Automatic annotation (TrEMBL):
The chain crosses the membrane at residues 266-288, 308-328, 389-408, 414-435, 496-517. Residues 190-202 have a biased composition (Polar residues). It comes from Tetraselmis sp. GSL018. GO terms for cellular component: mitochondrial inner membrane; plasma membrane. Pfam families: ABC_membrane, ABC_tran. Residues 270-557 form the ABC transmembrane type-1 domain. Residues 171-202 are annotated as: Disordered. The gene is ABCB1. This is ATP-binding cassette, subfamily B (MDR/TAP), member 1.
Length: 833
């Protein structure tokens, strides 16, 4: 704990928690003042964009920081490290996600932070670490060279000089001037454990080596498996939160829909009903036998033993019948409930996956809430329609059979007791209403938030431990859990009153039965034997009624759960990926036009991200988007993938508005490689095959070769069958990125979207992957989002973006020749100094 309090880490993939920006920065030093938090944000060049957000520092970043761009997330992570004021600073590609201007400003801020601090920098961009006291070059897990920049560059045949040559060669578009005059820090590789000077910086800038991968990891192959086709009902208010969207079929009971979904299980329903009826009838039968045995014990006849033996045998037969009927009930309704829960989960999961990206941006639809719905809500439904349904059916038979036996033995006493039955019914209604009014709906949000905090803390355990956030995260989790517990405590008090009323009513009926039965025996209207039979029958019948009422809360939990689940299942997404419109004939050509596009994110309608933007991309062209973080570059990629729809204007592919094209067809023809590579917890081969599931193993290997991934994959313990771990945790950042590129290569798309696709690669691999991507881009429309301008010099069109607008566009040479002081020229100069 003490050690980690003195060390701060900024990783290549920034980690944020689903809370406010202020909270995320203050995690660096929970006791920091507001002014200190703001000062750290200013040093990280984050204060300006934060204040421009709708709620400023109180803006929620969303799950995993989804509401922010990669550069914005990185600046918040850097502000968090600055606020910590550590003695040791670890920078693992800390500025890789930043544009040139932000990188320069943040590097200056980090240099201030690094003063008098031991700093270890992991870097691929060698121009950023020229000032390091010591540069350590790693190759295949060994330290092959170390020294200052000036010392290492003198050895022209050394590993460092070769890396420098790679980065200023024409292939990579680098600049010797940029390297020689570079300042600051670094990006990518894994931190060196080599000792450094007491206040100096040590840099590990070697080539990636495959890390050892655990043999067993949880797989996700089934998770991505078969999709179920569902009919959905319209959602009138798709922009509102789930709490305000009414069920599309309010006139139809949710429970009725559940039963209808289980209609195919009618044989089990019949068997279960027979079992419930039989088991429910055994209790009143037991009452009849019990009263008869008591009568036998009070008789003086010579056949007392014979009668006692007979009734004992009947007792045993009732026990055997209970076994048979109990098995039928539990098996039938248990299987029926389990199948319904599976059916509901499949429908819900398919419905969740088909929702548009904007729906997931809303706080109430975070992964914790969705996981809870798939798990807890489905379990509530299973219990109510399965086990609870059987128990209620059984108790209703107990009630009916008990009163039937009582009526046969003495109708007067039975009618008197029946007159009191409304009291039982009334108490049951009160309990049901109380349970309905205090349902889990009111507590589900706090429970989901607690689940979300737990999931994020487990997923980002390295950051939690690196910043000693165990106590802070625990406090945050306890706040949500305490709110949930308080709501449930209030519910428990109220439902307890309802349960007490129910129990009082039942014993009041017992009292009435005893009193009236005693009067009848006293007056000679009925025998003691008849009174016992009526009383025991009524006693067990009333118990059945009471037990049935006790199942009401479970039934209402299931009803509330069904309401939440059907709300998602019935919702028609604004952007439906499952539309069945026929694709255009002839395939996609690949021309793209953004015509006066204005865009605002659905959950931030007050912030205009793109403002009447015009951009024309011819088929086969490579168009590069450059500019500061948050200028709207990645938003354009999201619009081309149709993750979102425009607020005004249109995106056209091959001259057709993208809204008129089948989404599945569009996405089948578009390949995306993001800045933060996404891998699933399955094998390397399965991750690559997501690009084209029917691809052969040989095609997978060829795609890996193109992405320069084959060598490290084959060096893994199980090669292509190696599990990559949760989110690819067993691979380095560069390895994950190359697997993601191989996936895009295998897809063979008509349009290729590269969002900082090579930012995680070292110089050698960047050159090789760039060559592979150039081959892949041949004849394809390509949109490249880039901060490192050396990677897009050969683009047909370079569009410079500022504040959601294109302020300049043309080729590299045109932009430099036409306007020496233009935005692009300024960006070039920033990266050369």
């Amino acid at each position: 704990m003490w050690l980690r309090s003195k060390v701060a880490l900024v990783s290549q993939e920034p980690t944020l928690f689903a809370t406010s920006i202020y909270d995320n920065i203050s995690f660096g030093s929970p006791e920091a003042t507001e002014e200190q938090v703001h000062a750290a944000a200013r040093m990280a060049n984050a204060d300006t964009f934060i204040r421009a957000l709708p709620a400023g520092y109180s803006t929620s970043v969303g799950e995993g920081g989804v509401q922010l761009s990669g550069g914005q997330k990185q600046r918040i992570a850097i502000a968090r490290a600055i606020l910590k004021a550590p003695k040791v600073l670890l920078l693992d590609e800390a500025t890789s996600a930043l544009d040139s201007q932000s990188e320069r400003l943040v590097q200056e801020a980090l240099e201030t932070v690094m003063a008098e601090r031991t700093t270890i920098v992991v870097a691929h961009r060698l121009s950023t670490i020229r000032r390091a006291n010591r540069i350590c070059v790693l190759h295949q897990g060994r330290l092959v060279e170390q020294g200052s920049h000036a010392e290492l560059i003198q050895n022209l045949d050394g590993a460092y000089s070769q890396l420098v040559a790679l980065q200023h060669s024409p292939d990579t578009g680098g600049s010797r001037a940029a390297l020689d005059s570079g300042n600051g820090l670094a990006p990518k590789a894994k931190s060196s454990s080599e000792a450094s000077d007491s206040t100096g910086a040590t840099v590990d800038s070697g080539i990636e080596l495959a890390e050892k991968i655990p043999a067993k990891e949880r797989r996700l192959f089934g998770f991505l498996g078969k999709r179920r086709k569902n009919a959905v009902a319209p959602d009138e208010e798709m922009g509102t939160s789930p709490g305000t969207v009414e069920d599309a079929q309010t006139s139809k009971s949710n429970m009725s829909r559940l039963i209808a979904l289980n209609a195919k299980e009618w044989p089990l329903m019949i068997l279960g009903s027979i079992g419930s009826a039989g088991l429910g009838s055994t209790m009143p039968a037991l009452a009849y036998v019990l009263s008869s045995i008591i009568t036998v014990f009070y008789s003086d006849g010579d056949d007392q033993e014979q009668k006692a033996n007979m009734w004992c045998m009947i007792f045993a037969l009732i026990g055997l019948a209970s076994f048979i009927f109990g098995f039928l009930e539990q098996y039938s309704f248990g299987v029926m409930g389990a199948r319904l829960a599976t059916r509901i989960r499949c429908m819900l999961f398919a419905a969740i996956l088909k929702q548009e990206v904007g729906w997931f941006d809303r706080e109430e639809n975070n992964s914790g809430a969705m996981t809870s719905m798939l798990g807890t809500d489905a379990a509530h439904i299973r219990g109510a329609v399965g086990d609870t349904f059987g128990i209620m059916f059984q108790n209703l038979f107990t009630f009916a059979a008990g009163f039937a036996i009582a009526f046969i033995n003495n109708w007067k006493m039975t009618l008197v007791i029946i007159a009191a039955v409304p009291l039982l019914i009334f108490s049951g209604i009160i309990q049901a209403k109380v349970a309905q009014g205090m349902s889990d709906e009111s507590t589900s949000k706090d429970a989901a938030n607690a689940d979300q905090v737990a999931m994020e803390s487990f997923r980002n355990i390295r950051i939690v431990q690196a910043f000693n956030l165990q106590d802070s995260i625990t406090d945050l989790w306890e706040r949500h859990s305490t709110a949930d517990a308080m709501a449930k405590s209030k519910r428990a008090h109220v439902t307890g009153i309802g349960f007490g009323v129910s129990q009082f009513s039942m014993f009041a009926v017992y009292s009435l039965a005893f009193w009236y039965g005693g009067q009848q025996v006293k007056d000679g209207e009925m025998s003691f034997d008849e009174m016992l039979k009526v009383f025991f029958a009524v006693l067990l019948g009333a118990t059945g009624a009471s037990n049935a009422q006790m199942s009401f809360p479970d039934a209402h939990k299931a009803s509330d759960a069904a309401k939440r689940i059907f709300r998602v299942i019935d919702r028609v997404p604004r952007i439906d990926a499952n539309d069945n419109a026929p694709p255009p004939k002839g395939g996609m050509v690949g021309s793209i036009v953004l015509d006066s596009v204005t865009f605002k994110y659905p959950n931030r309608p007050d912030v205009t991200v793109l403002q009447k933007l015009d951009l024309s991309i011819n088929s086969g062209q490579m168009v590069a988007l450059v500019g500061e973080s948050g200028s709207g570059k990645s938003t354009i990629i999201g619009l081309v993938e149709r993750f979102y729809d425009t607020a005004a204007g249109a995106v056209r592919i091959d001259g057709v508005d993208i809204k008129q094209l089948p989404i599945r067809w569009v996405r089948d023809n578009v390949g995306l490689v993001s800045q933060e590579p996404t891998l699933f917890a399955m094998t390397v081969k399965e991750n690559i095959k997501l690009g084209r599931p029917n691809a052969t193993d040989e095609e997978v290997r060829e795609a890996a070769e193109h992405a320069n991934a084959a060598a490290f994959i084959e060096a893994l313990p199980e090669g292509y069958d190696t599990l990559v771990g949760d989110r690819g945790a067993s691979l380095s950042g560069g390895q994950k990125q190359r697997v993601a590129i191989a996936r895009a290569v295998l897809k063979d798309p008509r349009v290729l979207l590269l969002d900082e696709a090579t930012s995680a690669l070292d110089a050698e691999n960047e050159r090789l992957v760039a060559d592979a991507l150039e081959k892949l881009m041949a004849g394809r429309t390509t949109i490249v989002v880039a901060h490192r301008l050396s990677t897009i010099r050969n683009a047909n069109v370079i569009a410079v973006m500022e504040h959601g607008k294109i302020v300049e566009q043309g080729t590299h040479d045109e932009l430099l020749a036409n306007n020496q002081n233009g935005p692009y020229a300024r960006l070039i100069r920033l990266q050369q100094h």
